[in-house]
Amino acid sequence: MRFAAAYSPSGLSGLFSAYTEPSDPYKKGALGAGLALEKGVRVEVWVEESEKQDLECYLNGQKAKLGLVEKLQAKIREKGGVEGSYKIIVKQHVSAPIGGGLGTSGASALATALALGKALGAKMNYQDLAREAHVAEIEEGTGLGTVSGLVVGGAVAVARPGAPGTDMVVRLLADPSVKVVVGFFSPINKREALSRVGIERVNELGRRLLDRLLEEPTLERFMFYSRRFAEEAGFMTERLKKAFATVERAGAVGVSQAMIGETVFSIAYDDNVEKVVDALKSLGAITLVSGIEWRPAGLL
Questions:
Q1: Are 160 and 167 spatial neighbours (Cβ–Cβ below 8 Å)?
Q2: What is the Cα–Cα distance from 99 to 5, expressed in whole angstroms?
Q3: Is the separation of the CB atoms in 101 and 12 below 8 Å?
Q4: Could you tell me which CATH class the domain 2-170 is placed in?
Q5: By C-alpha distance, which of 130, 137, 132 is closest to 153?
Q6: Range(s) for CATH 3.30.230.10 in the chain?
Q7: Residue ranges, CATH 3.30.70.890, the chain
Q8: What angle do CA 286, 66, 56 make, to 5 degrees?
Q9: pLDDT in tens, 46-83
Q10: Check: CATH 3.30.70.890 for 174-291?
């Protein structure tokens, strides 16, 4: 039996502009900007030869049917020249809230692709596997551009959409000691939210604010334009508006909404982290404190 493990940071998006029209799936994706978080996804894969092909998946210890993993193993077997039949066991361990705009699906796709590629002995390099993770996530409908940022790490702006190798990702300047404090209230149905606010208007807003961010690519300007995006795009709930004001009073340097979830993310330094956490808890949020993860996803 062969074994491989991989880790990917999770990744929140503060602003975005979707590109879903190209017929080439490797050119689909999104422009935008966001943060890779230390709290991410660990994936373990076991592979052994078998008389028939079999896939068994677990999510945080519970057996699950994971369509994204099914797509990935089929793509990697085909494109990686993997022959024969195997029993494959995939265990995903997600340490960030699922469904809250923290990019856990993209992180899971990327870490799974890397671990599967290694365990199956696929004839594919890191970029090859990352590209398949990007396409699989788009096909599964769980995200558009998260993988692009996770193969770079840190505070990033995606300046050209597409799969890794087709995209262009710019790192922002940021103090490595800063902490990201997240407050998760509940998931948001992405399709319903985009239908309600109008995707064309949101895309135009995202492009315009990203252009301004790229003129002064710092963490502080990222937080400023993310806040603008959250306020003008129309995804904010009354609970988020209240949380923004509460977190600012607690001493956060900046605050915005993780796209697309009923999730607040803020930047704080050590002296104010606990105050910001307490403020979010007082509103009923599930809280998470993480550093920015400057290392990209990789094998363990």
A1: yes
A2: 23
A3: yes
A4: alpha beta
A5: 130
A6: 2-170
A7: 174-291
A8: 115
A9: 999 999 999 999 999 999 999 999 999 999 999 999 99
A10: yes
